[in-house]
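tool_call predict_complex ligand=iron/sulfur cluster
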Amino acid sequence: MNKSANNFYTPRFSHIYVEKNMKNHPMAQKILKRFPNARVIEIDQYQEVFHRPKQNFFVQKNSQKLILAEKKDHYFYPGAEVCHDFGNPHFYYSTNILNCIYHCDYCYLQGMFSSANVVMFVNLEDYFAKLDQMLEKHSVYLPISYDTDLLAFENVAPFTAEWIHYAKKHANLTIEIRTKSANYRAIRHLEPLNNVILGWTISPDFIVKHYERGASSLEARLANIRQAIHDGWKVRLSFDPLLHIDDWQEHYQECVEQTFTTIPAEKILDASVGVFRMPKDYLKNIRKYRNDSDLIYYPYEHMDGVYTYPKAIRDQLVQEVTQMIEKYIPKEKIYT
Ligand code: SF4
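tool_result ok
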């Protein structure tokens, strides 16, 4: 009998840990209803499961458990310098969910957390109360899909829809929802808003297949983008992280051509281009556990606490891919 390795693991979210004080929260209830067969375990604090000592992220990734928790502080973080701010002066990000259902080889989460279990902070109302205060003082630009792929989880936890409802009432807030999913249908019923940007990561098919395990194909992402544009949403394309793989010029050339023959370039809000980069300590952590990815063992250069490609390679990747994109969208819409 053939048995795949995965069969030795319990299915994803077979166990759900819930903080006692959150178990009756409407969002927690909504999520729990999606998993009627899960074993539900009450806990006091999510940290007792998520930060348990001697965990192995990579073993857990085969059978992720779900943790429903309350976020008590740090609802918003200042945007990191290595991330694009797209010209916005008040750039923050928020994390409603920790960890992801996809498993990209270049993902920093595998080096940041010792657990691959998924934490969902269900008390969105507290994020919104804090944001109300911030928005009284100034406008805010807020990517909401950091440390996860929020839209990929929408069928389990409809956080994206809640954020869009909130954005509708706050014109000086701009949110960005970035995804590698083809789950646009989960929010398609909502009215497109001027202050909501749907962002898709665009990667060559070769990279999707080899380094973005579980994520949607390029073709499926492009079909979603086409539909979203047609429906009136603002769409951002992120050619990020560019990877220095064999024959990268051919792969990116093909990818850029496929992208702009599928979607109307003139309707794209903007695009960002960036190379692989990862905090030094995270990459070191990953190297302790993984020997199955050439990406992890590339001889990166250390620069200000971050590992990235040597300057000549970075420049060549950004320059050449930007030139490919410039054939379709104007320079001033491309952020590098
Ligand atoms: S989609 Fe994003 S968050 Fe999810 S594994 Fe890939 S890089 Fe990490």
